[in-house]
Structures
1.
Amino acid sequence: MPGYRKQRVGTRVLAMILLIIVVLILGFIWLDFLGFIDLKNFMSPVFRLLNIPVRTGKSIPVTVPALLDEERFAKQFEALELQKQQLAETERVLKEKENMLLAREQELNDKDKKLQEQQISLNNQFKAYENRKANIEQNARYLTGMPPKEAVNILLSMDDELVIDILRMVDALAASSGENSIVPYWMSLMPAERSAAIQRKMAIKSESE
């Protein structure tokens, strides 16, 4: 019986020692996992073999996750700021192009307006010329049908430019109808000085044309 008791006591002591060892190992493992301590590198293969998570290297402060989040947020904020600057630059370039297009459009509108005004002016001038030409032709026909002396008296009351236009129209109408022009006879009935001045201006006008 005494031998049996000694065996039981020895077994209990061994079990207590093993239990203490297991508790110590688990305690170290837990403290290492929490980051308060760092187990030696040579024990890492054993822990990996037992599939137990172990921290290696230096212990990491508890605040590291917050620092990582802060760093990630800082990078995201930096990326957003860069994107904001790029958008602002793009908006500025588009605004400049829009202003250039508006200025070009205004320039084209001004040119178009100027061309329209010139066209209207030319049309008015052409109409005025046509109306004057029609009036001159009408006067030429009217004077040609009158007695020569009366026709000359009317011509003498006009300015030289109008007289020249009427005389040239009379010549043109006579040539188109195959008749002799009455203009030389009218010129002979005018005072010599007036007749010479009109003939001189007619010659100059013909040369300029």
2.
Amino acid sequence: MHAHPLLPPKGDSPVLQQFLRDFRIDAGRPPEQLLLASAQAFAELPYENLTKIIKDAETGTVEAARRTPAEVLADHSAFGAGGTCFALTSALLHLVRALGFPAEPILADRRYGVDTHSALLVWIDGQPHLLDPGYLIVQPLALPRDGELRIATTFNEVILTARDGGAKIDLATVQASKTTPRLTFKTNPVDAGEFLRAWDTSFDFDMMAYPVLSRIVDGKQLYFQKRHLMVRASDETTRHEVAPDELVTELARRFGIAPALVAKALAVLKKKGAPRDIDA
């Protein structure tokens, strides 16, 4: 049996205590301030599939390849790593629950598939609030039942539009006056079985064949896929290709991840027959 990544924390969670120490968060803050500070700090973890690629190759089964909250945070401390949305949601869910807030995972649909993204709801004063650090929704937002909410970030604007009485919420981003639909949250919480099913399916996504990373640095979003790096700022977006022999050093430098971990993931991809243009 493998450790269940969605198990509720027991008592004084050592994972939470280490997280608060690593990010120098004062545990004596009032509960809602502590929740906000923790969500903002958690958003510093990069989105990256390198750790997922490595563990999938090392374990051989998706059940064993799921990274637990303790692993996600330990890998960040040791290597600057983060995770993909399911591992990150699982880790944040653990932290929020350990802070004493009721919280549950939700799933979202993207253009290429159903249940291909995840986030979480946290209940504050009996009302469900959305958290999704991947889209910089780090201040818990009361779920809208109708209409539109706009959230300004340092590099874009996020638009949330409620449908079906709030049962679904469309998320779009605005960059340089261009609006791009991204996903649709389904706000009915899912149980562990549904969440793990969606997580396990994600190991078959196309993105398991190439590196994908995203991080916010100095108010700009860095996004890397295959060999292409995109830098989004509030007023412009720049793109360039990274040469194969520069992948390890460039990804390590840009995303703050240990070069050895980057090299290990690229070696796994090369062994699996990844496209030649991402060979290291």
3.
Amino acid sequence: MSQSALGREVGVSQQTIHKLIVGQSRSSGRIGKIARVLQTTPDYLEGETDDPHANAPLPAPPREDVVQVAMLDLAYGMGETFLEHSPEVRHEEFPLAFIRHFTKSRVTDLMIAEGVGDSMAPTIGPNDLVLIDRAAINLNIDDRIWACAIGEMGMIKRLRASGEGITILSDNPLVPDNHAADGELHIIGRVVGTFGRL
């Protein structure tokens, strides 16, 4: 695990993790969480023992009311953006009841990504997070919002089937509609929820 990935999991900067590793910092209020992420003990990390599992507490039983949802380090343009082929993925815990407000799909079919731009405003704001259901890939109801791609360009748009293909709609009235021929547009999943930032 990289220092930056560990920092993200724990909620501290990469610099903080680096200082702990090289000994520039000796204490951290998050040493317990760092140990849990690394599947070891605070005693081992602080050099108190050579056994990485000494004095380890018993693992907590899995909670049925909390689920892990994939968070992609990937931005879908509300407009268009280039898609990365291998975005970094981490998992965040969410209450299952909260997720069920948006979808009944399997949690493994869900992902959260960032929307960038304002072509879907006011429905989705710039830099809002979007919950995407990857099990929903059939354009069976017009005017829903979808994560989709044309070639290497990813976007979040309303889609409407037409006789010649698919009409790509923006909620922002200043952004003109677009069109994709049959077979040109790849649906990644349906946007089933958004999380706004203030």
4.
Amino acid sequence: MDFVAKSAGDGYTIGLQTVSLAINPGLTPKMPYDTLKDLAPIGMIASSQHVLVTGANFPAKDLAELVKMAKAKPGSLSYGSAGPGSTFHMSAELLKAVAGISVLHIPYRGGGPALIDTISGQVDMSFPVLAAAVPHIQAGKLKALGVTGTKRSPLLPNVPTIAEAGVPKYSFETWFMLFAPASTPKPIIDKLNAGLRQVLESPAVKERMAKDGFEATPSTPAEARVRLEKELLMWAKLTKERGITAE
């Protein structure tokens, strides 16, 4: 994204980034670029959810019981993540903040090892992406307590959202957005946005995304910027309050 931010605004250098673009400034004191000043959103591409899972033998049968356990013995439960600052990490920290619980963070070198140790019971829970977790949930190796988004996932229609399951103010999604250098003229941004939206309206593209747990979310450049601005503020507040860094 630093390369994109410092490139010529001619429409030929664009970047794709995730929700990490909104999270990283709160984790890293010295960013090499200013997200809002140096980058121009072209539009949203898609969003996806994570899912809170435990091992099959974990004693809590639902999220309400898990929260009760965590409050009864603060710090006694643990969760695995894909590493500091990852979406696995931040979705869990957001739950801790909103639900008012203390759960020990165990960072791994990637989501795969964290998921394996959740299945074996080395850690009590984790927040993998849907595509990685669904086969293990269907095989009975993992127990799904809630998906992180604002609505249930078609891949797990019987699993409630975390908000439905007892933490009403919780919502987390990984989104994907296309960007250009801030110096890119508006007509070029609008042309790129039109092309992007045309692709995202394709039934074949929507179907392919849905199979892996993604939902196409076409937007205008202005709508994408509003979401980015909102989440930059939210994640800056959360990381500061909880003392979270990328280390």
